[in-house]
């Protein structure tokens, strides 16, 4: 068996894996709401569908995709990240080709389902299970670097899609995006990705191998691996699972309605767009700070800080009545997003190990996608009932408040207490 890396680097090969993982979350873009939302108005114009019809198809497809995503996690454990990353990437490209040919609501539902399952779900799930295989002590920093792909994707795809549609039409835009995945992402994945450090003769974090006769190097560490069934026996698992759902629900609800919220507060569309831009700008460097903190402090404290930030951001949003308060909300919201991108991904491998991470993270990703599908609904209901969003903002505060409490009650579980002894 060849246990040499495909390319020789003077640094630890795990950082090459991080680069490909960042590329994967970048190319999840065509399945993300910030990207494919650019196509919605063109669907409405060309097909004559109502906005509620398209929105309903999108929400339903996202919900079904979230439920299905759990099986992808199990497949990651069975087939490995390399095979799954190649398969998912190829599948996403084909899904984009499908979207270029839609002519009816059923085809639109299938197209939405495929890009949500393969793009939003799987293209982020697989790299988030791959990077933790290569890093233990430096896991927070590695995930921070991977997050660069997320911010680059959210910044690039909306204007890129708008330009492609204006220049070539929305059908050709989908085709071009699909071809770009096949040409740019798939070959790099086939060439460079390996599932674990041992596949290239290395140890996690680039720890040197001990020489014959030497004592074990103090930096060489291992993790206890839990199966999904074992993890589900702990109180911590269910508390953290709730915590994972909260940002997806709250962020999607606020993002989906932010233009309308700002309009109701008399601040207009321009302020809403500025909020989204500031959020991304602040969130990007915050991920590096979070990665640094996550490598040094217990992750349940980082989670508690994250949800306290959610509370603060919602309070600011409630009281926003000026450009200054709107800007303050955007800064806090961006910082919170930077925290959660690392904390919610690192908690699973840190608590439950790497061997069954696909199944565990797959269930968490399923809950997250379902939360994002359901998030906008309460705001819409409250708007119809009260003619505004203030009551909805107050009501949704219950989720981050509960998450703060549950995070503080969720230190890393003791494997011996649950009879878990398997080491990686």
Secondary-structure element string: HHHHHHHHHHHHHHHHH
Helix count?
Answer: 17
Major beta sheet summary: none
CA gyration radius, whole angstroms: 22 Å
**Which structural class do you get from the secondary structure elements?**
mainly alpha
Low-confidence stretches: 215-221
Describe the fold and architecture.
- With 424 residues, the chain is mainly alpha-helical.
- 74% of the residues lie in helices and 0% in strands.
- It contains 17 helices and no strands.
- It is globular and about 65 Å long.
- The model is unreliable at 215-221 (pLDDT under 50).
- Residues 17-414 form the Major facilitator superfamily (MFS) profile domain.
- This is MFS transporter.
- It is found in: Cell membrane.
- Keywords: Membrane, Transmembrane, Transmembrane helix, Transport.
- It is a multi-pass membrane protein.
Give the key terms.
424 residues; mainly alpha; 17 helices; 74% helix; globular
Summarize the structure.
51% of the residues are buried. The protein contains 17 helices and no strands.
Question: Layout of SSEs?
Answer:
Layout: H1 14-26, H2 33-36, H3 40-47, H4 51-79, H5 81-99, H6 105-134, H7 139-168, H8 170-192, H9 228-231, H10 235-264, H11 268-294, H12 299-319, H13 323-352, H14 357-374, H15 376-386, H16 390-396, H17 398-408
Helix pairs in contact: 1-6, 1-7, 1-8, 4-5, 4-6, 4-14, 5-6, 5-8, 6-7, 6-14, 7-8, 7-11, 7-13, 10-11, 10-13, 10-14, 10-15, 10-17, 11-13, 12-13, 12-17, 15-16
